[in-house]
Write a structure and sequence with these properties.
Number of helices of chain B: 15
CATH superfamily of the largest domain in chain A: MetI-like
Distance between the termini of chain B: 32 Å
Oligomer: heterodimer
Number of domains of chain A: 2
Order of helices and strands of chain A: HEEHHHHHHHHHHH
Radius of gyration of chain A: 24 Å
Low-confidence stretches of chain A: none
Strand content of chain B: under 5%
Order of helices and strands of chain B: HHHHHHHHHHHHHHH
CATH superfamily of chain B: MetI-like
Chain lengths: 297, 288
């Protein structure tokens, strides 16, 4: 009887965890398995659905549209990630330093764009960039200069990166700020006694303390960056010649499925995007973990 | 004592003000330009008010557009956000509590899968979810938008951390000694202690629902079911088409004022609930 009771106690956890697990299986595990299964088939004109094993993945890896899209997304991340991290670090250190007048105003003001949905952010910036009633155009015309076409082939990706920088700096800033606030103040006093200046304190105390938060920010930047969809899909209306239907892998996948009904191939693109994301996150983790170990040694 | 009286720097404040202008300028621009007629939009400077103050006229036209469809978008967004936030608050507080305070078979594996799932991009799931929904026959329903937003692995992870930090195991043991049942212990002791964490998770879920674009775009056909994001994108596409027959007065002011109204609820929520989500953000980030 005693054993029976202990067994039941062991299962109590499942009563609490079960509801989440059920919904999670239905909305995450099953769709993933379904995508994986579906990606093994091809819808042939003659004969209907046929199993092709890795056939779709061979197609994915040699699809020039997808490779080009992946290249754009990587460029987007290469611009956006370092700038967001740098701006978030600098602003959080400034707010934490206690040397700012009205520091609360800066904290909330820089964070507010995070509360703006990406669709609205992309709409607004699209208009600001645009030549019709955009601020950028008016600024350059006011100076008597030709306005740059920010949605041209060369500038569209940096312009999208700017939207993302605008939206997410504040979120990362607050995470970093929380990390800085948890550093015991005595550490700074001890460092000051040892003759450390502001820069030395930032490098040797603040930055190492922020490493876990930086890692978290990098994770989410990689995960968010690879699925770049909302910005190009909104800006496509303004710049249809620059932003093609295969501009990013997510846009490509959407159009494959919705516009041309190639569900099996779209599923393979989805699985591929998932694998690229996991690879990206693991690379970040390995590189950063090694760096921070070196820094500690 | 020295830190409490740190000397304020005018230079640093000035530099930060430049940054602040960058972050607030688009919003100021949106507010100003929501008050303009389409004519003024094109003929007056972007950061000055127009010749006429058309804010209320624009709002009227927005809510009259296509039989008041904007009102439906607003109501849909509220529904999707509230249902998603409430549902995931229930699932994640129960699940997080279980991960933090119970040993159960399969827990390690479950935790590993959850952490792994944080890495799976939402748009990767959207396509198979759409195809599965069409097999079950629930595409183009509110359920197809709400259901996939309930089991958020990162929200569960955050709740597990909160529950571990804020509920002392001794308290649970003491309640068990007194003969309280597990459900009663959860509702009368644990739930109260994890409430601040729950506010953070709820707010993030609401933000995610407000931001949700890819999934509703793919699973919904009927524009009467759209959330704000999808609706505004469609409205914007029409405005840009330059179809004068569609709307002689122009649709741009409608898009702008529609965007403005769409952002007000979330901005207010973040401003009013600052105290709660800031501490939540800290706990989640420092722990990882």
């Amino acid at each position: 009887m005693h054993r029976e009771k202990r067994r039941r106690a062991k299962l109590t956890g499942w009563w609490f965890f079960g509801p989440f697990a059920l919904v999670f299986i239905a909305t995450v595990i099953v769709p993933l398995a379904y995508a994986l299964g579906l990606s093994g088939f091809q819808d042939k004109f003659i004969g209907g659905l046929q199993f092709t094993g890795l056939g779709n993945y061979v197609k994915v890896l040699t699809d020039p549209a997808l490779v080009a899209g992946l290249g754009r997304v990587i460029l987007f991340m290469a611009i956006q990630v370092p700038i967001i991290l740098l701006l978030a670090l600098l602003t959080s250190i400034a707010i934490d330093s206690g040397k700012l007048h009205f520091s609360g105003l800066f904290r909330i003001g820089i964070f507010i764009p995070y509360a703006i949905p990406t669709v609205v952010a992309a709409l607004m910036w699209g208009y600001l960039y645009g030549d019709q009633f955009g601020l950028v155009g008016q600024f350059f015309t006011g100076l008597g200069l030709p306005a740059p076409d920010l949605l041209s082939k060369d500038l569209a990706i940096p312009s999208m990166a700017n939207i993302s920088i605008w939206q997410f700096t504040g979120y990362n800033m607050l995470i970093f700020y929380a990390g800085l606030q948890s550093i015991p103040r005595e550490l700074y006093e001890a460092a000051a006694i040892d003759g450390a200046g502001e820069f030395r304190k930032a490098w040797s105390i603040k930055l190492p303390a922020l490493m876990p938060s930086v890692l978290l920010a990098l994770f989410f930047s990689v995960i968010g960056g690879i699925q770049l969809f909302t910005e190009p899909s909104i800006l496509q209306v303004l710049a249809p010649t620059t932003i093609s239907n295969d501009y990013t892998p997510a846009l490509y996948m959407y159009n494959l499925a919705v516009k041309s009904g190639q569900f099996e191939y779209a599923a393979a693109v989805a699985v591929f995007m998932g694998l690229v994301t996991i690879a990206g996150v693991l690379i970040v983790q390995i590189v950063l973990a090694r760096r921070s170990r070196k820094a500690l040694a | 004592m020295k830190t409490a009286t740190t000397k304020k720097s005018f230079l640093l404040t000035a530099v930060m003000t430049v940054a602040l202008v960058y972050y607030l300028l688009p919003l100021v621009w949106l507010v100003i330009n929501s008050t303009k007629s389409q004519g003024d939009l094109f003929s007056t400077p972007g950061l000055a008010f127009g010749n006429s103050f058309d804010l209320f006229a624009n709002i009227d036209r927005l809510f009259a557009y296509e039989g008041g469809i904007y009102g439906s978008w607003l109501a849909n967004t509220l529904l999707y956000a509230a249902a998603g936030a409430l549902g995931s608050a229930i699932l994640c507080s129960l699940g997080g509590y279980a991960l933090a305070h119970f040993a159960f078979p399969g827990k390690k594996a479950a935790f590993a899968i959850i952490v792994g799932a944080v890495m799976v991009p939402g748009s990767v799931l959207a396509l198979p979810i759409f195809l599965l929904c069409s097999q079950v026959g629930i595409t183009n329903t509110a359920l197809a938008v709400i259901l996939p937003s309930l089991a958020n692995p990162f929200a569960l992870y955050l709740m597990a951390i909160f529950a571990a930090q804020s509920v002392p195991p001794e308290l649970l043991e003491a309640a068990r000694m007194d003969g309280a049942g597990e459900l009663r212990i959860f509702f009368s002791i644990a739930l109260r202690l994890i409430a601040p964490g729950l506010v953070t998770v709820t707010l993030f879920q609401i933000t995610a629902a407000w931001n949700n674009y890819f999934l509703p775009l793919i699973v919904l056909n009927d524009s009467g079911l759209f959330p704000l994001g999808v609706g505004l994108a469609q409205l914007n596409a029409r405005a840009t088409q330059n179809d004068s027959a569609l709307n002689a007065a122009g649709l741009y002011p409608t898009v702008l004022v529609g965007s403005l109204i769409a952002i007000i609820p979330l901005v207010l929520a973040f401003l009013l609930l600052q105290r709660f989500w800031r501490s939540g953000l800290a706990a989640g980030a420092v722990k990882l």
